[in-house]
Amino acid sequence: MYPILLLPALILLFGVFGIPIVRYIWLSFHTSSVLTDLLPIPNNGANWIRLFSDSRFWQDAIQTFRFAISSVILEILIAISIAILLNQTFKNRGIVRTITLLPWALPTTIMALSWRWIFNTPYGPIEQILTLFHLNSINILSSPKIAWFATVIADVWKTTPFIALIILAGLQTIPEDLYEAFKLEGGNEFSAFQKITLPLLQPYIFLGLLFRFAQAFGVFDLIQIMTGGGPASTTESLSLYAYLNALRYLDFGYSSTIIIATFILMIIFSLFTWILIRQTKSLLSIR
Amino acid sequence: MSLKLRNISWKIDKQWIIRDLNIDVKDGECLAILGPSGCGKSSTLRIIAGLEKANEGHVYIDNIDVTNTSPVDRKVGMVFQSYALFPHLSIAANLSLGLKIRGISRKEQEKRVSSILSIMQLDQYSDRLPSELSGGQRQRVALARALLREPSIYLLDEPMSNLDAQLREELRPELRRLVIYGEKPVLYVTHDQQEAMAMADRIAVLKNGNLEQIGTPEQLYKFPTSIFVASFIGRPQINILPVKKGLIKAIRPEHIQPKDEGIPAKVIHREWLGLNQIILLESSFGTLRMSCDPSVEIPSTLNIYWDAKNEHHFDAQTKKRIKN
Amino acid sequence: MNNRKIVKGIKYSNFKYLLLTLILVIFNILGIKAQSKKAVEINFLMPAPFAESTKDLVKEFNQDKNNKINIKVTKGPLETESVSDLAISSLLLGDNSFDVILIDITWLPKYAAAGWLVSLDQFIEKGEWESLAPGARLGNSYENKIYRWPFVADMGLLYWRSDLMPEPPKTPEELIDISLKLKQAGKVKYGYVWQGRQYEGLICVFLEVLNAFGGGWINDSNEITLSNKKSIQAANWLKRLISSGVSPKSVTNFSETEALQAFKEGNAALMRNWPYAWAELQKESSAVKGKVSIANMIAKNNQVPVSTLGSWGFSVLQGSKNKSEAYRAIKYLTSTNSQKRLFLNNGYTPTRIDLFKDKELISNSPILAMLGKALSSAKPRPETPYYAQISNILQTQISAILTDNKPIDEAMKLAEIKTRQIISSSGQK
Predict the structure, then answer these.
(1) Which domain holds residue A229?
(2) Is B240 within 8 Å of B248 (Cβ atoms)?
(3) ipTM entry
(4) What is the span of the domain harbouring residue B256?
(5) What is the pLDDT of residues A150-168, one digit of tens each?
């Protein structure tokens, strides 16, 4: 109607997102490090050539995908169960709902420190329990094969409540009489979940999925505190690598390249997810 | 006797919602359950459908005790107030879902669905989602679903309350044709006395979970057994006259007439409705509603009169009818 | 309170009083201004523990009006790398709010190369530099210019349980023998605890082991020697500590804190840590109080034991408007008197040579002589602006070796190749 009214919002959006992105793209085609006295000097795409042959970048990309996909899938599965539980009527439901949300309200740094302690060998509670049952110590955070999963557990613990909340909101939009009508038609509880709950929750599940994937793909603080990227850099994420390049190595050109490359990977994956969503959507709803 | 409710009682926590309810509905009969909100009328329907279980009493459908039978095996065709159509399924899928669950072959499903769609004049909407249909069309889909169920009994929960007045008028004949003139008993829950009178063979008036009166619309109108029924049936509302010697008299507005040597009254408000006019009067009996011929000229003060044989008499203590 | 009375009081008060108050207020403002014009404010950025320990010294300095300098300390985060992040962010933004920053030895080349630091050569008077202990003089320069004045000396120490062994181990073999014997005898749960987590601490440990075997990282002629025989032997030994049970498997996630905790509880016979641990072990809560001594790091018979030098020092930032005052403030905090007090109160190893001979300090501390000895054998890490990169490469590979993620040869070779790539792409040392 009045497109001009959108202008302030667009300007703000450009200021907050556009300018930094444009700046990073520009910087990714420059060398800006201690070698150049931190001044940006054009390098004809040397950063990008370096990126493609940088095995650490690709390893980190795989690790970041692994982290993001595992945590988001686990989170959604657990969140659906939690949301269904919280949607029942029981005593003190309000209090229980609030408590369930607490992990999400906790600052990441604090919860990451706590999880680092939980997984600590030999003083953390998990090790203590293992010792109690005379089981072998598993050195969770110092085992390259499982340390990454410990970070997934911490992330799932923290952000599941957020998805559970979105899904709970979705559940509450499903009228009770749909289930009753379904029951009168002869459906049981399990098929009701499959035929009514899941399809109607779909938009909420996908909303949570996209939200969380983008967030998990940019994971930084959790990893930095829990493992610092170790052991043997098996938990290092792309954000952590970009951070190391910028603030530790003072190599701003390459850091920008990593940031833009991460951004591109994320967009590709989000598009892929979106297409997948559309496919399953047409599968699930018999039109 | 196709539906029998025997001594049905139901409570939530310690609150009785339905108390000792006994209702019989014959094959082909339409019974409206009428009452204000919270009187237990929807609960009655849900107990018959098996969505709730009564604390006491028995439900018989076709003379079989279904009190402990699962909802699906009771074979009820229910139309919900909200229609309860599955929003993610097309109209055809909404209709075939039940058939599919009950293991009817795909070919048979298609046959039945397309036949019901054409009966309902919904053919061209079969691929649409419920959200793409109008309120009246949705109601027809809900009805179609109930019909496809080939039920032993129809349960309609306020089927018209989500529609506007004009659409309601239009849909009444259709509803009657499809469901009510059928051979199965129909239970029709409504809070609208006019709709109940228009649709039902008999009306059961519920109040606080108790059956206040059951009978034909005419019986209820002419011989209300309590002040509650008298006030609930008939618009404009019946005039309740002041208590006198333990007796409450009531007179319907249409029985009050202007007459020269009558009770003096003053007009405080008038509604001219075309078919009649409703005059609100102030008199020694308090405020009275009078309904009379629209062509009569009503002055601002007048004398009114009614025939004593048209009065309804109720006991002031029990609020019940006294034979007169 | 009776408000009406106050209002009345103002209403009826003499105009003269109002004027007098006004004049007083104006004089006050002018007075403060005049005072602040006299004292130059020098803003220090320090990690939180240092900011705490220097509180009293700073207070005394500021109270002495003759100094005409007002030291302001900004307390940085507890974690040292976070302090660097904060400093770098502020420097990149061109924020001139800090005059002096307390930096770690490994940050210096990077900061100096970035052009953020002021060369102190212009302020250092003749003979002043020589007042520092030789070990403390290392790691303060970049391209032959001094950029940092050392504040606290830090070097790797071997802590040993004097109740369990008559002598500390001197060679790598002895360390393993003693540890295994004590462990088998059930005297301790672990033999040797150190820092094995993937972080800078692991490099400090590894460098000492490298030196013990005669191996090396980058030598003076800029050659990378991580995959030579001796370096591989060193890595092999470090891994053997875990596989033989001398060190617990969990050591691969130990930082200083975890190592200290294990040692403090009496669970370990030997520990590699920094001087700060000494004070912690003397506390009442320590299970090993009075049962601990410190020694030089171990080394093969034909090698000189070397400790990794890790020290903190003050640098003046380019953005400072009062550079010579900043230098004076630094000199105060690193003076004989200040360092003496910081050693007695906080156990900060001094950097001034005279303090290692100070009678009062010697009588107060049984370890001062040992600290002096360790400092004289301390060696800084490679002094290159790319230190963080090459350290990160080595951390990753050593961590991979220790956690069985990669064979030793392969990991060391990879570390060498990647380090060479970094160094050669920089085209300089």
Answers:
(1) 55-284
(2) yes
(3) 0.85
(4) 238-315
(5) 999 999 999 999 999 999 9
